[in-house]
Amino acid sequence: MTVRDATLADRWRVIRLLEESHAAAGYTFPFEAARADKLFQMHLESDAACAIVLDVDGVAQGILLAAAFDHPFGAGLWAKETVWYIAPDHRGRSGMRMLDAYEAWAGSKGCAVISMAALSTNDVSRIYERRGYRAAETHFVKPLG
């Protein structure tokens, strides 16, 4: 089990992981593979983004996508997770290695702040708190239509 930067060769497996993540989140809107593909490729191609995979025997079993941006309130460069999902059979300590890689990437980009999200369907906030993250906001989602 290794944590590494994603490559284009991971494309189809990552799309599947993003579909699983979508289902696990309980989103009411349909999953769109073409959008997931574009999202993944944007994170691969952008200097301000990262794509990290948990590789188990040559197969991506986890994905962490994130991007850095200049925070509008002047907090400096901020790294924000786009999605973090690990296939259920591969969860455990390896997730901390994925977070290590994300934090190292954010530091290498000069980020002053790094953030993660927790789904209401899989609250991992205690993991974040043990690593020094603090709750800042709670997002509420309402489908319109």
Put the structure in a nutshell.
The longest helix is centred in the N-terminal third of the chain and has 15 residues, at 11-25. The chain has helices spanning 11-25, 33-45, 94-108, 125-130, and strands spanning 2-5, 49-56, 59-70, 77-86, 113-115. A hairpin with a 6-residue loop joins strand 3 (59-70) and strand 4.
SSE layout:
Blueprint: E1 2-5, H1 11-25, H2 33-45, E2 49-56, E3 59-70, E4 77-86, H3 94-108, E5 113-115, H4 125-130
Parallel strand pairs: 4-5
Antiparallel strand pairs: 1-2, 2-3, 3-4
Helix pairs in contact: 1-2
Give the tags.
34% helix, 5 strands, 145 residues
Describe this structure in words.
- With 145 residues, the protein is α+β, with helices and mostly antiparallel strands.
- It is built from four helices and five strands; from the N terminus they run βααβββαβα.
- Strands 1-2-3-4-5 form a five-stranded mixed sheet, with helices on both faces.
- The mean pLDDT is 91.
